[in-house]
UniProtKB/TrEMBL annotation:
Native organism taxonomy: Bacteria, Pseudomonadati, Spirochaetota, Spirochaetia, Spirochaetales
Protein name: 3-isopropylmalate dehydratase
Organism of origin: Candidatus Treponema excrementipullorum
UniProt key word Kinase: no
First-level EC class: lyase
Subunit structure of this chain's protein: Heterodimer of LeuC and LeuD.
Catalysed reactions listed for this entry: (2R,3S)-3-isopropylmalate = (2S)-2-isopropylmalate
Amino acid sequence: MKQFGGPVLFLDRSDINTDEIIPAKYLTEISKQALKPYLLEDLKLEGFNPKVDIPGKKVIITRENFGCGSSREHAPWALEVNGIDIVIAPNFARIFRQNMFNCGMLAVELPEKDIDDMFRSFADKDTECSVSFNEDGTAKVKLISGSLSKSYHFRLDGFEKALIESEGWLGYADKNF
């Protein structure tokens, strides 16, 4: 199975919508790679500069309702081509969340108290994330910054786990149909 984790980008805002993830004017691009330079370019968040803050990041930790707005696969694709394969939030727009798993990416839902703790403990630090999976569908997100380390537990349902193991819907369909 693919390894998930890496440097974390903290986005301390709720309701980041798909138009902010990838502006609609780029939806005519014919390759995923063409979306790469435009990820989060319309996100308005004090102190955030996508050209400086995104490169090298592999994980986003954010607030509730990430991926709301228009339904489009382009939003997870733009994350994917930038090397971001995990978004952690209290909840997601339903279609966005499913599109993440369809692409073999993780949309991890954690209780708001855990997200608050992540921001309080790690947002102002260089932070690494790792994810480990157990056979029973339970999993763990571990954040590390210097000597500080904390773990947060979550669960994947059987189909989500199968999509992750197959690296997305296409791999799952190839194995099963």
